[in-house]
Amino acid sequence: MDSQLAIRARGISKCFGDVVALDGVDLEVPRGRIHGLVGPNGAGKTTLLGLLLGLAAADSGRLEILGTPVGRAFEAPGGVSGFVDGPGLYPSLTARQNLAALAALRGDGTRSAGIPARIEDALDQVGLTDVADDRTRGFSLGMRQRLGLAAALLTRPRLLVLDEPSNGLDPAGKKHVHGVLARLAHEGTAVVLSSHRMDDLEALCSEVTILATGRVVFSGPLGELAAENRELDYRLVTSDPERAHRLALDAPGIRLADDTAGRQGGEALVVRAPVPALDDLVVRLVQAGIALRELAPVVSPLEAAFLALTEQPSTGGRETGQHGTARPGQEAARREAGRHGTARPGEEAVRQKAGRPGTADPRQEAGR
Amino acid sequence: MTATSTAPAHTAVPGRASVARGYRFEVVKLFSQWRIRLLVLACWIVPALFVAGVSEQSTLPTDTLFGRWMHATGWAGPLVTLGFAGTWALPLLTSVVAGDVFAAEDRLGTWRHLLVAVRSPRRIFAAKALASLTVILLLVAGLAVSSTVGGLAAVGDQPLVGLDGRLLAPGDAAGRVLLAWLCVLAPTLALAGIGLLGSVAFGRSPMGLLLPAFVALAMQLAQMLPLPVAVRLALPGDAFVVWNGLFTSPAQLTPLLIGIAVSLVWAVTATTLARLLFLRRDFTNPTDDGSARRALTTGALPLAGLLGVTVAVVAATTTATGSGIEQAEVERSLATEFAHLYRMQTAQLHRPAVTEAQLRTTATCAKAGVQDGARGPGNDWRCVVSWHLPGATATGSAVYQLDITADGRFVADGDGPKEVNGYFVVRTPTGDAPNPLWQFDGTVELLTDSPKTRSRTPQS
């Protein structure tokens, strides 16, 4: 057992009746890291988070949390905190009362004299001191999320598990939350957060796990997803779209993901290319006297990998028949996933236990 | 499963909240709800105002047991309140508290939050059940204390006329009033258990909240039907009325004890079923907040089975037959009560004192023309009460129409002669006073050892 690991999961499976929610999931999260968990709806993220929080037990596999083997349900060790499906708050209590009741409930062996100070500290960390004595009935989603995080902080967790913590947050709230999570990680707390906000994950996480239909299709550092030789969609805005379009058609390694710029007089050009080919195109544009006003990936590397690995259609541009049907980043991502031996992007979205073919779409439910 | 097998059996579970901490948490949550605060306030204030207000009125709630004595003693007020409470207040209170204690977490979506904090569904259940019990007890205590204070403050600490016509000294009355309120705790607990079951089984559905009220209503309807006495006693709702037996002498303890026992068995069974349902729940699935099928198989069917078993046990272990309302027992109850009330009237009129033994009161009753072997509830009972006065050769007689309900309670309405029971007031040397023989409430004991042999008044 590696004492530096906050989570060590091997072959975790979980079924709900005939529906397989998790299928042989492996996961390692070191202490002091922020680990992102992404996947389409019904991929099993919430089920996995529930197992980490001790809300349920795995049907098979080995799960160690903070160095302690976890067996039956509700036996996640102390030091684990967080929330899934939103923070649980009681609307008839104020923010401070919610935290005080929770602190009194948990006990944590702390003298009651120290609790008010910890509550104040938690409220301050998430920026809710000003509304501490307001009933949470009137709180916005973002304020509820921040209070949920404050509740989790009360226990001084060594493993923090959060489900969509950025939901409903305004920029200031997001800054607060990101700051808190970064500080916790710096102090040695492992943070596992599930989110559909790829920008949040890229800003916060050092590692990410992508789940699809209950299986891990990628798990590792973000940098591996953003490998330089991966094809991504890029949006170029130039001073002369028509000439730029012609140059792009002639440039090696460049494919047009969306050629509306050249045909219809649009300003933007969307190309699909690995980074070296893109560099070459930029040089050609400049040498041709075409000003490059904007160059940005249509989707982030993480989002591209997510879309590729989970068989989601790209939102970055329309496929054109003349350029084939490969999706952005798909091949590279599959290669990446193949290293983990778990990539099954071609599998049906709904998987049932062997010998029990399903007729509906229970994944949505099972994955929760 | 590998995960289970690798975990040591004695794995410590730090951070698991105790039942005591969970209980405090639940109590805080309950009292943070405005409706619970309002209920507590209402239960501790409204009964006092109600009793004091009614006691000051000229018209009394004579259709409620002891209502006709609210002018006479402050101890009638808490018993009138108890009658109302058993019918409406207690089922509704248990609905609001116990019927919502689990469902509230479903509505708020806080189950996972709570489970992460407590880490033990068993402890959560215990804490919630204890917290709701605490609030219910507080509400019942409020009803009892408030109505008593209101009655004593408005009318005073006078003797209370029992359901056999005997005068109960204030101390005796106080003790019996207290016992009566304690007795209804048992059926209240049964409804609370049913409330917990409904709350767990139906989740956020309003059916869970309304279940105790529906069950109480169904039991009240059952009480109004001419059911066999064994079935009546096997219903937990019967304990809401059997406290009447405390106000006779001797007290009618058998139905009282059966009612309490049945109620407690229902309370334990319903709570156990609720716990079973709760522990089986899958909290990783937010859509799993109970189901009608599971409520039926784990909730309703076992309780229906329990009803069948209790009916069989009551029928096998008691003398319960038919409606329990037999002619001989009606005659005995009426004669006994008339004798006690006749003494009271004699004292009011400052006539020479007599004793029940001297009166040798008897009653002869018929129902719908049936002179021998009459039985069953109805308002067609007609009785003639006869008595003897010391030194007089003539036998006094008075006629009463009896309206006997299925639970054994009756109202005797005087039908002459007018000197005895013809007017609702009697003229005393100090002014007019209510005529105790004009109309009075009584109760027929539904379970008797030998009902055929006791038609004469006891010599006391």
Shape annotation of chain A:
globular
CATH superfamily of the largest domain in chain A: P-loop containing nucleotide triphosphate hydrolases
Main sheet properties of chain A: 6 strands, mixed
Head-to-tail CA distance between termini of chain B: 76 Å
User: Spans of chain B of 5+ residues with little confidence (pLDDT < 50)?
Assistant: 1-14, 450-460
Strand order of the largest sheet of chain A: 6-7-8-3-9-10
Low-confidence stretches of chain A: 313-368
Q: What's the helix-strand series of chain B?
A: HHHHHHHEEHHHHHHHHEEEEHEEE
Q: Helical stretch count of chain B?
A: 16
Q: Specify which chain pair forms the largest interface.
A: A-B, 55 and 43 residues
Task: Determine the number of helices of chain A (DSSP H or I, runs of at least 4 residues).
Answer: 13
Report the average pLDDT across residues of chain A. Answer: 77
The termini of chain A sit apart by 29 Å
Strand content of chain B: 5-15%
The largest sheet of chain B has its strands arranged as 3-4-5-6-9
In short:
Chain A has 368 residues and is of the alpha/beta class.
Keywords:
heterodimer, A: 368 residues, Rossmann fold, Alpha-Beta Plaits, 13 helices, B: 460 residues, two-stranded antiparallel sheet, 16 helices, disordered N terminus
What does the model show?
The complex is a heterodimer of chains A (368) and B (460). Chain A has 368 residues and is α/β, with parallel strands linked by helices. Helices cover 34% and strands 24% of the residues of chain A. Chain A is built from 13 helices and 14 strands. Chain A has helices spanning 45-52, 95-106, 115-126, 141-153, 171-186, 198-204, 222-225, 241-250, 260-264, 275-287, 301-309, 330-340, 363-366; strands spanning 5-16, 19-30, 34-38, 60-65, 68-69, 80-83, 159-163, 190-194, 207-212, 215-221, 232-238, 255-258, 268-273, 292-297. In chain A, strand 4 and strand 5 form a beta hairpin. In chain A, helix 2 packs across helix 3, helix 3 (115-126) crosses helix 4 and helix 11 packs across helix 12 (330-340). Mean pLDDT of chain A is 77; it is low at 313-368. Chain B contains 16 helices and nine strands. Chain B has helices at 2-6, 19-31, 34-56, 76-97, 103-108, 111-118, 121-154, 170-183, 185-202, 206-224, 229-234, 253-280, 292-317, 327-348, 356-359, 418-422; strands at 160-161, 167-168, 362-367, 378-388, 395-404, 409-414, 425-428, 431-434, 439-443. Chain B has a five-stranded antiparallel sheet with strand order 3-4-5-6-9. A two-stranded antiparallel sheet of chain B has the order 1-2. The termini of chain B are far apart. At the A-B interface, strand 1, helix 1, strand 4, strand 5 and strand 6 of A face helix 1, helix 2 and helix 6 of B.
